[in-house]
Write a structure and sequence with these properties.
The complex is a heterodimer of chains A (456) and B (66). Chain A is 41% helix and 13% strand. Chain A is of the alpha/beta class. The longest helix of chain A has 23 residues, at 297-319. Chain A is globular. Chain B has 66 residues and is mainly α. Chain B has 3 helices and no strands. Chain B has helices at residues 4-8, 17-23, 30-65. Classes of the chains: A alpha/beta (456), B mainly alpha (66). The interface between A and B is medium-sized, with 26 and 22 residues.
């Protein structure tokens, strides 16, 4: 990968990587061993993985190399090294969710549905990545240390899929699975300068994951770019139509007022949003939209997510201890709500979905920042409503959304821009975001490359 | 007639929240319960605002249909 050639020849892009495998250099063994060597050298500082499958991954890479030599690859991801957030079952490994309440659980007997699909397509699982406790607690209250940001290891990664985002940014793997209940894929992806994709609600199976909030949870992928995510979507949702829209016909909307009314919005984010809109105006038709109804999203999300999380973990709460303090506070709030609260939130959610569907009749893609600030110090904490202001609305509506690297702030920290589409139009979201990321400045691309080279 | 001790006791809402959380397995101090009670009161108010907004929206829609 070079700043001049863009993302096309990034080894982490499965399309590029598998073409190289077909030509014999590098081989899946070279790539897997390269990833494991980088992890061995650098993960003591970044803490992205909780457990590795080194011998198994090396064996699977050798088998993949044999298949390529015999021109019979297992599938479109054969030999592509990936990581899995430790919320997903991987057969033979315990699923801990970075929680002392789960750390002594028995190994999972089967792969989660998406893990199974990726393995069937030839992907090699290098190991499991760390997270905020069970997807919402503190990053440092579980059995594994908090992941650090590869752009600057004194910075936070954001969460909850912290290890997955950091591992991709550091080049420890080509991509990683994550879960997103209020922004848990997109926030760390943005803060670590990579792409994070939350598909349409229900598109990818949540079977075999530890749930947090079963009506808001989304399974998704973190990869270097939106273009790289496409390879995974083809495998994970093979029946989803991927028509090629003429990009010149795409109508973009920007909720500028909703964004600019955000408390403590970073001036760097404001500036980058303006630059991104200017860039988009050169590519698409761009209009402004209000979306004032999104002001009600935080309370809807808080009630539904907390009440469902409490319901999920109630048996373990009664049976044993081990939950961290932050998570206990979250669950206790969920326990405090009553049925009427949950029903009011559910009705509100239906209202938001209707309003959004009406609004999206006038445009195809919504573009807004992913987070209101760039990465802060590793020990900094933002309130739930603050950090998820731009992401949670699309867990409520179930719309597909992806964040991509759109620039850097004055301190060189990555900024993410979010592209959101109508439910079921996941490919369009990735196509438009891919067109955007192909036009980002060479300087930004160079900084991303420098991060990758730092962990070579 | 209340004794002096009873009249000095702070007024704690008898909403059953502390008992409910204890039964659910939480070991919380009175202070923690108070924080959760305040948070819940705020959430209930915001849900009420949401309900009102939705009703207003429906009314506006109905007006538009007419």
């Amino acid at each position: 990968m070079s700043a001049d050639s863009g993302w096309e020849d990034d080894w982490r892009n499965p399309a590029f990587l598998t073409r190289a495998y077909e030509h014999g250099a590098p081989s899946p063994v070279d790539i897997a061993e390269g990833c494991l060597a980088r992890i061995a050298r650098h993960d003591a500082a970044l803490h992205t993985f909780t457990v590795l499958r080194s011998p198994e991954a090396q064996g699977e890479a050798a088998q993949s190399a044999t298949r390529y030599r015999e021109t019979r690859p297992a599938g479109p991801l054969d030999g592509v090294p990936i990581a899995v957030k430790d919320m997903f079952d991987v057969a033979g490994m315990a699923t801990c969710g970075n929680s002392f309440a789960f750390v002594q659980d028995s190994p999972a007997p089967h792969d989660a549905a998406v893990v199974h699909a990726l393995r069937a397509a030839g992907a090699i699982i290098l190991g499991k990545t760390t997270l905020y406790e069970l997807g919402t607690g503190d990053p440092d209250e579980g059995p594994f240390p908090a992941a650090r940001n590869p752009w600057d290891s004194t910075l936070a990664t954001g969460g909850s899929s912290s290890g997955s985002a950091a591992a991709v940014a550091a080049g420890f793997c080509a991509a990683a699975l994550g879960t997103d209940t209020g922004g848990s894929i997109r926030i760390p992806a943005a803060l670590c300068g990579v792409a994070g994709f939350k598909p349409s609600a229900g598109l990818l199976s949540a079977e075999g994951i530890i749930p947090l909030s079963w009506t808001l949870d989304h399974v998704g992928v973190i990869a270097p770019t939106a273009s790289a995510v496409v390879s995974f979507l083809h495998v994970l949702a093979p029946n989803l139509k991927a028509p090629r829209w003429p990009l010149r016909d795409i109508r973009i909307a920007v909720p500028a007022l909703f964004v600019h009314e955000t408390p403590d919005l970073s001036p760097d984010i404001v500036g980058n949003y303006g630059d991104s809109i200017a860039l988009l105006r050169g590519m698409f038709s761009v209009t402004e939209t209000s979306l004032a109804f999104l002001q009600h999203v935080p309370v809807i999300g808080e009630v539904i997510a907390r009440a469902e999380a409490y319901t999920v973990h109630e048996p373990r709460l009664r049976a044993r201890r081990g939950f961290g303090k932050a998570l206990l506070g979250y669950l206790a709030r969920g326990a405090a709500y009553d049925a009427a609260d949950y029903i009011k939130a559910a009705r509100g959610r239906a209202g938001i979905r209707d309003r959004m569907a009406q609004a999206m009749a006038d445009f195809d893609i919504l573009v807004l920042p992913t987070v209101s600030n760039t990465a802060g110090p590793a020990d900094s904490r933002l309130s739930d409503a603050h950090k998820t202001r731009f992401t949670r609305p699309f867990n409520i509506t179930g719309q597909p959304a992806v964040t991509v690297l759109s620039g850097v702030d004055r301190l060189g920290r990555p900024i993410g821009m979010q592209f959101v589409g109508r439910c079921g139009e996941d490919h369009l979201v990735l196509q438009v975001a891919g067109a955007f990321e192909a036009r980002i400045q060479t300087d930004t691309l160079g900084r991303s490359l420098a991060v990758l080279n730092r962990y070579a | 007639m209340k004794s002096a001790g009873e009249s000095a006791r702070p007024a704690v809402p008898d909403d059953g929240l502390a008992c409910r959380l204890a039964e659910a397995g939480f070991q919380l101090s009175e202070h923690d319960v108070e924080i959760i009670r305040a948070d819940r009161a705020s959430v209930k108010q915001r849900l009420q605002d949401l309900q009102s907004a939705l009703v207003a929206d429906f009314a506006a829609d109905a007006e538009g249909v007419r």
